Every structure is written in C-alpha cells, then in structure tokens.
Amino acid sequence: MNTSETTMPVVQSTTRRSYPCTESETAIRCMQSLLTLFMTSQTDLRSHEKEPDESTVPLSLGSIFEGIQKGPGESLQLFDLAQKVVEEHFTQPDRLRGFTEFTADTRQVRLLRPAHELDEQRGLPASSTRRLNVGEEMISQIETLFGTARELYFEDGMENDFARELIRLIRQHGNRAIGALTHLIVTEKVNAGVASEALRWLGCMDDPNTYRDRLWLLERSLYCSSARVRDGAALGIAFMDDPRATEHLREAIKRERVAELKRDLEQVLEQLESR
Amino acid sequence: MPYVRQVNKAKWYRDPELPWLQPGQVPADALSDLKTSDNELSVFYTDGNKSSIEQIAVAMTTTKDDIHNFDYAILHEEDIDQLNVRVVSKPGKTAHDAVNSWHRDFIELTGQKLLDLAGVILARGEIQRVLPKQVCQLMARAMVSGQIDRSKVKLKPDELAKIDRYNSQMDRLESSS
Staple partner for A179: which of A129, A132, A158, B28, CB 3.0–4.6 Å? Predict the structure, then answer.
C-alpha cells in the first residue's frame, strides 16, 4: 500500500485480499469505519469539485456491506478494494486501524469494489446500481430536521411532521438522502429516539428506488450502540419483511445484550423465516 | 383481571444500557407513554388472553393513520389497587364496539402517582409487542368477521388497501385449496 502523503483524492484499483478477523466485534467495527470513511470521502470529492472515477468509486451502500463477507474460517473478505485518500481519519483501536489499513499519518483507506460488478455477479440489472453522492448540504438539511424533531412526541401509527418531511426528502433526493441519513445514524450524530423513529419509517415507506439502501441501513443499524436505535432498525426490517435480512438478524441476536430487545429481534426473525 | 396500556416497548427496557440509570429507576422518556388528558390515563380492562390483546391491537389500529406495531404493557389489577388509583368505566372511541366496552380511565392522577405507576410497569408489568405484519393480518380478519366497522376506521386509504390485498390473497389461497 502506498503510504506517501498526498493532498488530492487518489483512486486506484487493488486486488482481492483476505484479512484475518477472529472477532466479530472487530468485523462490525471495520464495517462501520469503512462506511464512515466512504461517506466522508464522497463529501470530500465534492469539496474538491472532482468527479469520482467511474470505474472505481460509484458504490452503493449495499455493495459495501455485501463486499465484506465472512470468508473461510473466521477471516473477513474485502473484495477488490480501491484505495482512496480522504481528508479525515477516524480514531480507532490500533488493531482495527491495522486491519482496515488506514493510518493517522497517511489517511489512506480502502474502499470496496464498484457496485455494478457486484450487481452483475448477483445477476441484478446494472440499473440497480446507484451512485451515492452525499453532499454536505443534504447532511445539514437532514441534521436540522432531526434536531427539530427532538421535541416531538412520536405516537406509533400516527404520521407526524418529521415523518412526512423525511419521506418527502427521500422521495425527492433518493439515495443522496439515504446516504446522508446513513452518515448521521451510523456515526450516531443524532438523537437516538429520533433515529429510531426514522428507521421505522424507512422500513414502512414505499419507494422502490431507495429500497436496497434503506434495507442496508436498517441492517447496519442493528449494530448501533443505542438499544432504541437497534429497536427502530428491527421494526423497520419487520415492515420490509425481506428474508435477505435474516443473516443480519441472526448476528444481531447473538450480540444483543438487552434481553427484551433480543426477544423482539427473535420475533422479527421468526416472521421473516415464516414467509 | 389486568389492564392494558399501549406503550413504546423500547422506552421500557429494564436494563437499557444507560450507565447513569440505576436498576429499577424509570427513564424519563418512558413517562411520555403515560400521557394524560385532564389528569386521566386511558387503558383497557381485559382478561389478558392473547385473543383479547389482539382485539385491542385491532381496535387501537382503527384510530391510527398507519398500520404499525402494537406495543403494550399489561398491568396487574392488584398493583393498580395498591397505588390507590381510581378507575372509571368509559366507552372507548375505536371502531371496535366490543373493545370499546373494555375501556377504562385511571382518573385523578397526580404526577407522583403517575411516576409510581411507571415504577410498577417497569418492575412488574409485562411488556409485549405485536409486529405490524401481524397487526395487518388481525385487521384483515376483523374486517372479514365484521368485528370492526370499516366506515369508522381512520387508517389512510393505502393502508386500508394493504388489508384488502391481504384478504384477497387469503381468498385466492382458500379457493385454490
């Protein structure tokens, strides 16, 4: 890996590699850091007014997660990585930093293979790949929406101004809005109660264009540190009723420490398995 | 006979992993599930059987915009008696006539009594969930059986359409078998 200091984003292809990972905790953290770095890198590209390289950067959130899979033994496979320089590095334990191959000095990280390759591999149409381009403006807009909603009382089954505006933004901006939401929820920058409410609505809203990324965000949010957020994710998945989430639910059940939430996750898993 | 109160289950975890919260203490957010009006709190008085709970879930859904999960707390009558909570019978306003007759109000509630009630829910209440898909199925069955008056259901048209689709699927399955 090239460790020289650079000032502009650099994208280059690398080859398939496998990284040893003996603890699922580390694997999840790795996914989180990769995602966070990915989101930041998109903003970074925008701030440099430079379009990403079509061959390597247009990733979907779903493809990031699916690109990280458990390999033989307890290894974790990161497929066809691309390298990219980002402005910001994230503080992580040394062990994890080594694992993800980014350092405080060089700010170099690895991103995953282009989404369209994964889609082709899965037999999905190329059109299912969407470029995620999260602007700071969108993040700011959604952050403000979340901030305003802190004072609202959310009643199950009742629409509210927050839900209406959230759904409107998603329908209008598609995966850009989902990307901004992902950034705010995964990095836990927003109120947990509001994030939980948002995740429920992400699950029950009807918008085929953002379906895959919404499902991905719900799956990912099962690993957030707030039990309220994890519960919102579980409910969102229950609304979507998509059996593709079963693996993530099983993993989340294994890790869940809140007894009541563990039972709720099992209830959702039963629903998906009984389809 | 227990009382049933709709809550948001995630606000009532006994160990929500909040380092500042001592065991047995009620997180403040949970109190928002005990929203009173005129110092009264709405509950249902029921035998606590699964089918009764399901009917309450249906009844409550008829008052909503969207089909959602139904989270509820079961409060034991003896606990309510110990708190000296006054209970009055008052017909509910759902589209489910049978369930409306189970409706009660806890009245003359003080802030302290409400906090005590929250403590009882956290300590001895049974907090459960009916998932949205099951709520949809229960709604569909209730409509077919005539338990609820469709004209009084407040769900949005697209939510009603989901219920109708479910019933159509069931009809097709029955006719094919």
Answer: A132
